[in-house]
């Protein structure tokens, strides 16, 4: 497999399950990539050899650029739209339901669905270059699917700020102050040392205690299996608008 090929893979090191995803287009997420990511997270949650999960991406561009515009422009009906946006719902719900802590490593910018993934982690590490943007409204949709995860993490006011000002970035410092990023480090090497230190400690902690604590963390989200699919229907309908189609075409022609 060449480095230019997209992938999702899991490696296990001393009880730590490291799930890595990559796509050559700034780690954007086509439907198949979303399906594989949700599947890897679900499988890691069931694997007794894994005590804690680390979620990261590869490459020197974005942590995750959100939805794949190549696929968005191909959506022709509401059924296809629902199927695509349900991919993000399945990833977030797999993170929510995994009975293990998920530590996210955000090495660069996070856009749209990438902000949702960072928000759905139980503990998120980042560096100063990891600015965030919920760009969905500019595309003619909205952060409907990832919204509950983002709002849960940073609160309604900060979520509204991100969702409404969809064309501008918020700094990693802003994200740290709002609670999206748990820890902010000066360099990737410093971040990785701290991340693996915490992951190593958690891998030696009680799996039963962590599973019970994870339930506490996510209390009140039991309806998300249905909620996020309903939100995916909204995005799947709006992406068919002429506004969205024109925006995506203009973006791809830049």
Q: What does it look like?
A:
The chain has helices at residues 31-46, 69-72, 78-97, 113-120, 136-139, 147-154, 156-164, 172-178, 188-203, 207-217, 224-238, 242-252, and strands at residues 7-13, 16-22, 52-57, 102-106, 110-111, 123-126, 132-133, 183-184. Helix 1 packs parallel to helix 3 (78-97) and helix 6 packs across helix 7. The chain has a six-stranded mixed beta sheet, sandwiched between helices. It is an alpha/beta fold and 254 residues long. The chain is 51% helix and 14% strand. The longest helix is centred in the middle third of the chain and has 20 residues, at 78-97.
Number of helices: 12
Share of helical residues: 40-55%
Main beta-sheet annotation = 6 strands, mixed
What's the number of domains? 1
CATH superfamily label:
2-enoyl-CoA Hydratase, Chain A, domain 1
Percentage beta strand: 5-15%
In short:
With 254 residues, this protein is of the alpha/beta class.
Core attributes:
2-enoyl-CoA Hydratase, Chain A, domain 1; alpha/beta; 254 residues; six-stranded mixed beta sheet; two-stranded parallel ribbon
């Amino acid at each position: 497999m060449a480095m230019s090929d997209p992938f999702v893979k899991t490696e296990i090191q001393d009880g730590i399950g490291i799930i890595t995803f990559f796509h050559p287009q700034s780690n954007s997420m086509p439907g198949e990539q979303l399906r594989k990511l949700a599947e890897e997270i679900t499988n890691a949650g069931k694997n007794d050899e894994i005590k804690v999960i680390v979620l990261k991406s590869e490459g020197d561009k974005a942590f995750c650029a959100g939805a794949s515009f190549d696929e968005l422009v191909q959506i022709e009906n509401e059924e296809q739209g629902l199927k695509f946006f349900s991919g993000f719902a399945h990833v977030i719900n797999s993170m929510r339901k995994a009975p293990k802590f998920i530590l996210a490593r955000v090495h660069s910018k996070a856009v749209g669905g990438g902000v949702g993934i960072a928000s759905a982690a139980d503990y998120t590490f980042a560096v100063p270059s990891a600015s965030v943007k919920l760009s969905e409204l500019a595309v003619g949709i909205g952060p409907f699917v990832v919204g509950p995860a983002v709002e849960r993490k940073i609160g309604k006011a900060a979520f509204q700020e991100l969702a409404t000002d969809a064309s501008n970035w918020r700094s990693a410092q802003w994200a740290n102050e709002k609670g999206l990023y748990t820890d902010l480090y000066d360099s990737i090497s410093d971040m990785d040392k701290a991340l693996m230190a915490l992951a190593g400690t958690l891998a030696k902690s009680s799996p039963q205690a962590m599973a019970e604590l994870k339930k506490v963390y996510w209390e009140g989200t039991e309806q998300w299996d249905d909620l996020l699919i309903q939100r995916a229907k909204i995005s799947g309908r709006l992406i068919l608008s002429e506004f969205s189609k024109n925006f995506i075409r203009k973006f791809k022609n830049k």
